Sequence to fold (460 residues):
Amino acid sequence: MANAEGQWKQVLMLERLLQANELIAERLRERLTDAGVLLINMLSSPGSGKTTLLEATVKALSDKLRVGAILGDVATERDYERLSAYGVPAVQIVTGGECHLEAAMVEQAMHRLPIENLSVVFIENVGNLVCPAEFRLGEHFRVTLLSVPEGEDKVLKYPHAFRTADAVLITKVDLLEHVRFNVELAEGYIHSLNPNARVVKLSALTGYGLDEWLSLLLEWHKDVLQRVEL
Amino acid sequence: MANAEGQWKQVLMLERLLQANELIAERLRERLTDAGVLLINMLSSPGSGKTTLLEATVKALSDKLRVGAILGDVATERDYERLSAYGVPAVQIVTGGECHLEAAMVEQAMHRLPIENLSVVFIENVGNLVCPAEFRLGEHFRVTLLSVPEGEDKVLKYPHAFRTADAVLITKVDLLEHVRFNVELAEGYIHSLNPNARVVKLSALTGYGLDEWLSLLLEWHKDVLQRVEL
Fold:
C-alpha cells in the first residue's frame, strides 16, 4: 500500500499548496483594489495571440488607462522585449520549467511595477490551458483566449480554463475563411460550461472587435474603482 | 523553515515519480520492441493538428503499416470517435485534470489494443508543450508538432518539448501566406536546441509533406524491427 499512501500524501500536499495560493491571491487582490488597479489574468494555449492583443490594447488605451504587464514564460524574455518597446512597465517571470504562475510569483513581481501610476495590470500566464486554470493569481477578472486555428472543440477538451473565465476572447478571426472553425458552435460550448461568460471576437491584425474589448476593460476598471468606495 | 522543508519534500517526490515513470517506460518500450511495434509519442499545443495528421496518416498508410492509437485528453472522447471512424483500434485516456500522460497510464491502455496485429501505435499526448515533455512513455521516437499560426518563437519558449524530439513537424503550412511565420527562422531555432532533429513541413489539408512523413515512419518501423533482431 506504499503507493496508495504516496498518492494520498501528494493529494494532501497539492491541497495545501492551493490553499496557500488562495490566501496570497486574496491578499494581492485586496492590495490592488485599494490602489484602484484592475488585475487581469490571461490564459491560453501557446501562440493564441496574448502578446499581440496586449500590444494592440496598449496602443488603443494609452490615453484612457495606464497599462502594466507581468509576463510568465517557461523560458525566454521575448514578450518582455516586445511590450517594453511600447513603453509598458513590464516584469518577466521565467518559470524555468513550471507550467503555470502562482500568486506568490505575481506578488513578488508586483513590487517591481510602479502600481501607483497604473490603472490596469495584465498577467500573461504561461501558454497552457491545463495547469494555469487551477491557480488564482489575485486577478479581478480572468480572460481565456481561443484562437480560431485551434478549433472550437478545445473549449470542451480544456473545460476548466473556459469554465472559470469571466470573458472568452475568440482571437485571430481574420483567419476564419482559411480554417475550419464554427463560431456559433464555439459560443454554444462556452455558454454550456459558463453561461455568464462574455464572448468577444477579435482580430488584433485588422482591429475587429477591439472596441468591444476596450469597453469591457473600461467597465471592469470602473467596477474595481467602485469596490474601493464600498 | 517549514516552507523550505515542504519544498524539498516536493522535489524528492517529483524525482521518485520521474524515476518510477522511467522504469515503466523502459519496460513498455522493450515489450513493444519485442512485438515489432513502433511506438511514437506526439507532443504539441492544443489544436496544432495531431488528430488531423493521424487521420491523414492512417488513410495513406493503411496498406503499409497497421496503426493503433492511444489518445490523452483532459476531458472528452472526441478524438477517439474521430479515429474510430477510420477503423483505427484506439483507446482514450481521459486524465480528468492531469496535464500530461504517464507511462503507467499508457501501459494499462496498451492492454486494450490488439498489438499483435499492429505495426505502429501513436500516442496523442495531452495538448500542452510543458508538462508532457518531462515524461517518457516508452516511445521509440518522440515527435513535437508546431503549427504555423502559433509563431516560430514557441520553439524557444517551450524548449524542452523541442529539445527532446526526434522529429519536429511544422504543421498547417497551407496557412503560411495568411500568418506571420518564418520557416527558416523556426528551423534555425529547432536546430540550435536539437541539431539532429528531423524537420518535416506538413499540411494534412493539402497533403504537402505527407510523403516525407510516411517515409520517416517506414524508416522508424524498420529501425524497430532491426532492434528485435539484435
